[in-house]
Amino acid sequence: MKYFFTSDEHYGHFNIISYCQRPFVDTEEMDNSLIARHNEVVGVDDVVYHLGDFTLKDNDIAQNYIRRLSGKHIFLKGSHDNWLPNDYQKILELKIDDQYLVLCHYAMKVWSRSHYNSWQLFGHSHGYLEEAGKQLDVGVDTNNFYPYSFEEIKKIMNKKEDNFNKVQIHEKRN
Q1: What is the rounded distance in angstroms from the CA atom of residue 122 to the CA atom of residue 125?
Q2: pLDDT-derived band of residue 171, with 50, 70 and 90 as boundaries?
Q3: Domain ranges of the chain
Q4: 99-104 vs 148-149, strand pairing mode
Q5: What is the CATH number of domain 3-159?
Q6: What's this model's pTM, rounded to 2 decimal places?
Q7: What is the pLDDT of residues 11-30, one digit of tens each?
Q8: Whether the predicted pLDDT of 109 surpasses 70
Q9: Which residues contact 21 (CB under 8 A, 6 or more apart)?
Q10: What pLDDT sits at residue 168?
Q11: Nearest of 119, 92, 118, 112 to residue 103 by alpha carbon
Q12: pLDDT (tens digit, 9 = 90+) per residue, 40-85?
């Protein structure tokens, strides 16, 4: 089992093609391409975290997209996820391989355990927002329309600077 992270697929949203200069002629081409790329890397037993803006469509249409995607899916509510209940989870904190992560549709200046160099994964900005420290925009527009694997994220984070508020731990002197 592997872990994947993605955001801002905007399935069925025609205007996102021009807003984000996506290289598709229509939503059918975009949707089919996103689904094919997703299924190319995600296995049936893998876990996929969707960090918002999956689709603007209703629940029935959202479920049709989900059925076409490999993996087990965990959703966070974004700004265009009207198919999810209003009180649906917007932030998720988890630990994978001893790494603490904070997931949210929106980027944060500070987040839980950021002072211990935790990672914050977000979407919403479609690659137009500068990341700080151990942050990563996991939106499809930032990864050639593929979800990010945890292993890819680990490699990226290892090259990033520490969070600005990282606590410096000093050894006790005798």
Answers
A1: 8
A2: low
A3: 3-159
A4: unpaired
A5: 3.60.21.10
A6: 0.95
A7: 999 999 999 999 999 999 99
A8: yes
A9: none
A10: 80
A11: 92
A12: 999 999 999 999 999 999 999 999 999 999 999 999 999 999 999 9
C-beta of residue 115 within 8 angstroms of C-beta of residue 163: yes
Contact partners, residue 100, CB within 8 Å, separation at least 6 = 93, 94, 112, 113, 116, 118, 119
The half-sphere exposure of 33 on its side-chain side, counting CA atoms within 13 A, is 18
Structure tokens at 146: 């593929």
Tokens representing 62 are 């959202």
Tens digit of pLDDT for each residue in 142-159? 999 999 999 999 999 999
End-to-end CA distance of the chain: give it in Å, rounded.
46
Sequence-distant (≥ 6) Cβ neighbours of residue 44 within 8 angstroms:
70, 71
H helix count then E strand count, the chain = 4, 8
The answer to whether residue 169 scores a pLDDT higher than 90 is no
Q: How far apart are CA 11 and CA 59, in angstroms?
A: 12
Report which residue type is found at 77: K
Task: Count the Cβ atoms, other than its own, within 10 Å of residue 40.
Answer: 10
Dig out the tokens for 29 from the structure: 């081409």
Tokens at 87, concatenated:
């009180």
CB 127 within 8 A of CB 73: no
